[in-house]
Write a structure and sequence with these properties.
Keywords: Methyltransferase, S-adenosyl-L-methionine, Transferase. By secondary structure, the protein is an alpha/beta fold. The protein contains 17 helices and nine strands. It folds into two domains: about 110 residues, Winged helix-like DNA-binding domain superfamily/Winged helix DNA-binding domain (Arc Repressor Mutant, subunit A, Orthogonal Bundle), CATH 1.10.10; about 140 residues, Vaccinia Virus protein VP39 (Rossmann fold), CATH 3.40.50.150. α14 links the parallel β4 and β5. α7 packs across α12 and α11 crosses α12. Bound molecules: S-adenosylmethionine. S-adenosylmethionine binds next to α12.
Length: about 300
Amino acid sequence: METEGEEHASKLLRAQNHVWNHIFKFINSLSLKCAIELSIPDIIHNYGQPMPLSQLIASLPLHPSKTSFITRLMKILTHSGFFSEHHANPNQPDVMYLITDASMLLLKDHPFSMKSVTRLIFNPVMINPWFQFSTWFTNETPSPFHRENGMGFWDFAGREPNFNNLFNEVMAMDSRLVSTVVIEKYKRLFEGIESLVDVGGGTGTMAKVIVESFPQVKCIVFDLPHVVAGLEESQNIKYVGGDMLEAIPQADSIMLKMMMLFAAKERYEKEWANLIFSAGFSNYKITPTLGLVSIIEVYP
Ligand SMILES: C[S@@+](CC[C@H](N)C(=O)[O-])C[C@H]1O[C@@H](n2cnc3c(N)ncnc32)[C@H](O)[C@@H]1O
């Protein structure tokens, strides 16, 4: 039984431990970045069986003075669920690694590879604004991103083609995965639709999957002009550049996936966003698990 003093000391240690852990959480994500840059998920996957640490080390472009640190990197990543550790037998001290469902999504050639997400999110353009977070609360700058990069996110994407392409690629990857689920699960919703506008539809990945599965649907992919410029249209897909905060094209259904619907309604008081809200969410399929806000609806 702990004395009052001991109990106080354990509580204090637990609290300190909690703070240390929280402060160092960034090591988890930046270790993941490191592993991806060294192609560790691909190397282990291509090995085709549990990969001994010595083999992994031999396959990496390491400076000889750094080989022992790979064990530490792999400990962090195993603990975070990106690899699993295996021990062949007690006489074989070399630990072996396999990839997990999570690191499968980091493989270069996986159809739903999230590698581009890591390139986008670990980009200083995206990370540095977080260092401005508290300052942002104390002044008028519209977003930490704006404060750090001198303009809003979408303006920045409009001026930096590489960043724009990377962002659109990330969105397309998400849509490739989500569309497979949406088409399967919400088939019913698309069956009666003749026209649909995908507001903020990016480069049209969702729209392409929808018209392939439901050829009666005519899709308008509506997004900022720099996103849709030069994209190839088809009989069922038209691209329209514009600002959803001004107006959106007419269609008998609206699709929003990962869009700022609340901002459109509350900050910008857009009529079309109000319409969605006033119709009552019960009429709409809101599938937060499929994205930040995924709404697929036929209206009126
Ligand atoms: C988070 S992405 C979602 C893209 C796509 N719906 C998806 O889920 O893959 C947000 C999209 O909204 C577009 N966007 C941002 N502001 C916009 C505006 N004012 N008018 C039209 N599109 C806008 C962006 O260019 C971007 O493609």
